[in-house]
């Protein structure tokens, strides 16, 4: 069973919140002598994008538009306001077809916006289907606290395009190799959508289609090396000798990263993470072990998958039944390693769950503005769970209860 730990996790920039109790944007007293000014609007950093010629973002998500972007910390994150030239386009798969769309921005020069590590490429997640706006944020927090190889930087912002407020977005990294992000020689993804798009180099194993996300410009020889290693790892895992500590699957897979990735995705009962997409692997060095991660795409997790009644229930294994992971789980040594890891990470995972109320408070004004623009609590889309509360507070309470119930169920199964 869980032991409640009263540890509040909240972004450091939230400590500079204005003393105002209304969203008037007017300070109630003179600014302090250290020149930290009260934040305005929703108390979140603001991104203002103006597309050249007043154009809209292209309806073709692969087409960039040139833009000028202002990154205004709004006294809620480190650094000064940065104005940068660059480009913007759409991104995402099913999320691109939702009314509130996600975007990718590519700056002409690297910039450390809002005090984050400098980079050119950034992602703006709309979180349209997540009526709490915080599922991806919480998953990233768990990944960071579990010290996974790489966790995308993540920061709530307000987004304006051509002067029109688009709502609350989660600014995060473009997942890429190098540039202060994932330190690896390749990034691979199990992604069933490649059968339709055929837009990246990929190969097929006996179980899954595997996309080579990076490097994108590879020779046939390099592709053969990557696919050969991956297929051989799968072959060993399926062999009779797979439990062998020296020459079995542990020679090819880093079990620590597998378990961390599994625990986070299973805690959210992440609907796509068993066989469909966002199942990432990477190799730190050519010809060396496969590591799992980063974690990605949790907006339909934690009971929020209208198209999967199974994942709406807080009980029952889901991600564990990924063909690779379940095969590992049948090895008693792996099962024991998973138990030790779970008991080690339980306090951290629970602390992130218990931070939900703090995140809710931090987003108090932002969520009001967001759902004034996007009044979706009673929508009836394929991804919507129709019996959930029709207000923000109720949605957040459902999320918190789901994760706590899920936490307890997983604990009962791992520690019978």
Write a structural description:
α1 packs across α7, α4 packs across α7 and α7 runs antiparallel to α10 (392-414). The model is unreliable at 3-37 (pLDDT under 50). This protein is of the alpha+beta class and 416 residues long. The protein starts with 45 loop residues before the first strand and ends with a helix. Helices cover 29% and strands 19% of the residues.
Number of helices: 10
Provide the spatial order of strands within the biggest beta sheet. Answer: 1-2-3-4-5-7-6
Number of strands: 12
Mean of all residue-level pLDDT scores: 90
Overall SS class: alpha+beta
Shape, please? globular
**Helix share bin:** 25-40%
How is the main sheet built? 7 strands, mixed, barrel
- The succession of helices and strands, N to C, reads EEEEEHEEEHEEHHEEHHHHHH
- What is the first-to-last residue Cα distance? 10 Å
- Rg calculated over all Cα atoms: 22 Å
Spans with pLDDT under 50 lasting ≥5 residues? 3-37
What's a quick, concise take on this entry?
With 416 residues, the protein is an alpha+beta fold.
What characteristics describe this protein?
416 residues; alpha+beta; 7-stranded mixed β-barrel; 5-stranded antiparallel β-sheet; globular; disordered N terminus
Give me the secondary-structure topology:
Elements: E1 46-51, E2 65-72, E3 82-90, E4 103-111, E5 119-125, H1 135-145, E6 154-161, E7 164-173, E8 186-190, H2 194-197, E9 202-204, E10 209-214, H3 220-237, H4 255-267, E11 279-283, E12 290-292, H5 309-312, H6 323-329, H7 332-354, H8 356-362, H9 364-373, H10 392-414
Parallel strand pairs: 1-6
Antiparallel strand pairs: 1-2, 2-3, 3-4, 4-5, 5-7, 6-7, 8-10, 8-11, 9-10, 11-12
Helix pairs in contact: 1-7, 4-7, 7-10
């Amino acid at each position: 069973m869980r032991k409640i730990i009263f540890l509040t996790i909240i972004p450091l920039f939230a400590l500079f919140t204005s003393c105002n109790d209304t969203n008037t944007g007017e300070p109630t007293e003179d600014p302090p002598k250290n020149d930290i000014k009260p934040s305005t609007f929703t108390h979140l950093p603001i991104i203002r994008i103006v597309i050249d010629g007043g154009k809209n973002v292209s309806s073709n998500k692969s087409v960039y538009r040139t833009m000028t972007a202002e990154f205004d910390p709004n006294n809620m994150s480190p650094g000064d306001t940065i104005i940068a030239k660059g480009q913007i386009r759409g991104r995402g798969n099913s999320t691109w077809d939702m009314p509130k769309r996600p975007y990718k921005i590519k700056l002409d020069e690297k910039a450390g916006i809002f005090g984050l590590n400098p980079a050119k490429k950034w992602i703006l997640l709309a979180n349209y289907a997540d009526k709490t706006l915080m599922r991806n944020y919480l998953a990233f927090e768990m990944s960071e606290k579990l010290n996974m190889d790489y966790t995308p930087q993540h920061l709530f912002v307000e987004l304006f395009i051509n002067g029109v407020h688009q709502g609350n977005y989660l600014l995060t990294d473009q997942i890429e190799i190098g540039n202060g992000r994932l330190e690896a020689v390749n990034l691979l993804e199990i992604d069933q959508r490649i059968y339709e798009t055929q837009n990246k180099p990929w190969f097929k194993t006996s179980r899954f289609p595997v996309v080579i996300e990076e490097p994108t410009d590879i020779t046939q020889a390099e592709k053969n090396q990557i696919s050969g290693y991956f297929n051989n790892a799968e072959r060993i895992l399926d062999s009779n000798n797979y439990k062998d500590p020296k020459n079995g699957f542990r020679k090819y897979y880093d079990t620590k990263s597998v378990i961390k990735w599994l625990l986070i995705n299973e805690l959210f009962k992440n609907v796509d993470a068993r066989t469909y997409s966002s199942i990432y692997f990477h190799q730190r060095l050519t010809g060396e072990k496969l590591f799992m991660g980063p974690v990605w795409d949790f907006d339909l997790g934690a009971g929020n998958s209208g198209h999967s009644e199974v994942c709406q229930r807080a009980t029952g294994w889901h991600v564990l039944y990924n063909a690779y992971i379940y095969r590992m789980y049948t090895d008693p040594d792996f099962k024991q390693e998973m138990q030790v890891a779970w008991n080690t990470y339980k306090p951290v995972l629970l602390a992130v769950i218990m931070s939900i109320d703090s995140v809710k408070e931090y987003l108090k004004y932002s969520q009001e503005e967001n759902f004034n623009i996007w009044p979706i609590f009673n929508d009836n889309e394929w991804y919507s769970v129709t019996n959930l509360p029709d207000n923000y507070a109720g949605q957040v309470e459902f999320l918190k209860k789901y994760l706590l119930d899920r936490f307890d169920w997983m604990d009962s199964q791992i520690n019978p």
